[in-house]
Amino acid sequence: MGRCLESQRVSFAYEPEAPVLAEADVSVTGGKLLGVIGPNGSGKSTLLRLLCGFLQPVRGAVLLDGRPLSALHNRERARILAFLPQTVAPAFTLTAAEVVILGRYPHLGPLGTPSGRDREIVLRCMRETETEHLRHRDFGTLSGGERQRVLLASILAQEPDLLLLDEPTAALDIHHQAGIFSLLHGLARNGYGVAVVTHDLNVAGQFCDRLVLLSSRARIVAQGTPPEVLTPDLLSEAYESSIVVTEHPITGTPLVWPEPASVREGAP
Amino acid sequence: MKRCRGSLITAGLMVVSVAVVLASIGVGSESIHFGAAWRDWRAGRPLADAPELAILLQHRLPRTLAALLAGGGLALAGCVFQALLRNPLATPYTLGVASAGAFGAYTATVVMRSAGLVLTLGGFSAVQAFAFVFALLDVSLIYLIAVRRHHVSPPVLLLAGITLGMLSNAGMMLVRFLSDPGMLAMMERWLMGGVDIIGYEPVATLAMGVLPCSMVLLLQAAQFDQLGFGAEIAQSRGVNVRRLQTTTFLLGSFLTAVVVSEVGPIGFVGLIVPHAVRSLTGSRHRLLMPLSFLAGGAFLCLCDIFARIVLPGETPIGIITAFVGGPFFLYLLLRRRFGDWEA
């Protein structure tokens, strides 16, 4: 049975006069890859932190399989739900394998001593993300793409059912970006519930099962499949500028462009 | 292979520590005939009639134990402050505990002198008592400033600590400026640090301050790994980051306050020992923290041996830790790529 994490009419504000989210209903379910998109400052990261339980909603509730998320103990929650922040900057030198084994924390005893089984899980997760060959490398010397894969392995080692990722591809080239997204897509096919914040609408449109489009006015503009959400009208409303949508020549998924200024001004 | 290396380093360090402890008991201005001392012990002779046994039991053993506890405590506090503040320069004194203690010690002399009071209260000298109280005031102020309901900010902690340290230094200079030069000699000596104690009362005080705090900190080793990796991801994995930061700051500071008030603000141990150990063990705190404690104790014990033999009389140990530790640390910096700290 797949897990379901949902926000019910969740509102949030860091300062009372500036709401970041209002009445947001979003759900992350097992087997689905959910893309969270929207302009800068539209509350994408905030939404993810509410779903993680890091932030408490001002109104509304976040439920995990129908129970309030806040009723779970921290470690219990961590065994179900893993989070990858936008930037991870370790203060110490660690090898890639040491980074991945850190993900076992919620399963370890009070002294945090990993067992042989924990090491097997670490290896399995590194194989799944194709990072096994990097295990003795210093994490700090890995390339951006390798780092993200190792970090992905480390949250998979947590053995969660749900993954929440904040812009995991922000610093990657298009090839590595597609690599990470196809990995996430594969994880969703294997039953994980995945929510990913991204700025790349084309990649989101190609790989995600569902999209949530947020606007800078603290509300959800649209939710649905990529063709339902990635329309010129909805995108223009969310981004407050004219946006053109065409079709991918091979896959037929939506391709999104900002409308060139010359077109808007009526020039040829 | 990794684990095997870990146990090898642990075993090596244990052997070195035992050797240093034995040397520390054996070395001093008086040469001791151990056989005679042993016979006195077997015969149950009172210490007054057995000078060699008295030196061993009342001088050498307590100062060795004091050096182990003080050095171990300072090294462990340095280790956890480096993780807490995510900063390689952090020491047990970064948050101003030593400066506040020194300010307290100076104040004690002046107050006691002008009030015409004695300079000892029970087992503590007034200098130690004042140093401890001032250090705790420093810690409480920083707590009020930096620890908030939802989170603790390491930069605020750092800035508050440095500011209070400067304020304490200014206060200390004011007291020096106002006080009688004759009184200062005693203070100066306290500032240079020393484990030249007699009897077991100071050892008991150190043990009561250092051991419980160290125990609690050591039990949180796995959480320091997570905190060093990143506060947010640590939280997502079930670490109560705010609680960890608060307990670390309070226990580390309390431990430091106890050590500083007993043996003076001995420098360097809390900075270089964790780094030296980290260069051997890597950054896994389960290994790094207990080994830092062990190595810190052995290092201070070694410095105390030097303090007893390099110059006639007792050389202040703070001078020795810097002269022994400084060059060694510079060598470490020269030898290896300093990629350990990327934050």
Descriptive report:
The complex is a heterodimer of chains A (268) and B (343). Helix content of chain A is 32%, strand content 26%. By secondary structure, chain A is an alpha/beta fold. In chain A, the strands form 3 sheets. Chain A has a 6-stranded mixed sheet, with helices on both faces. A 4-stranded antiparallel sheet of chain A has the order 2-1-4-5, with helices on one face. In chain A, a hairpin with a 2-residue loop joins strand 4 (59-64) and strand 5 (67-68). In chain A, helix 3 runs parallel beside helix 5 (144-156) and helix 4 crosses helix 5. The longest helix of chain A has 16 residues, at 174-189. Chain A is globular, with a radius of gyration of 19 Å. In chain B, 76% of the residues lie in helices and 1% in strands. Chain B has helices at 2-26, 34-43, 51-85, 97-115, 126-146, 154-178, 181-192, 201-219, 221-229, 231-236, 241-263, 269-281, 285-309, 317-335, and strands spanning 120-121, 124-125. A two-stranded antiparallel ribbon of chain B has the order 1-2. In chain B, helix 3 (51-85) packs parallel to helix 8 (201-219) and helix 4 (97-115) runs parallel beside helix 6. The radius of gyration of chain B is 21 Å and the shape is globular. Chain B starts with a helix and ends in an 8-residue tail after the last helix. At the A-B interface, helix 2, strand 6 and helix 3 of A face helix 9 and helix 10 of B.
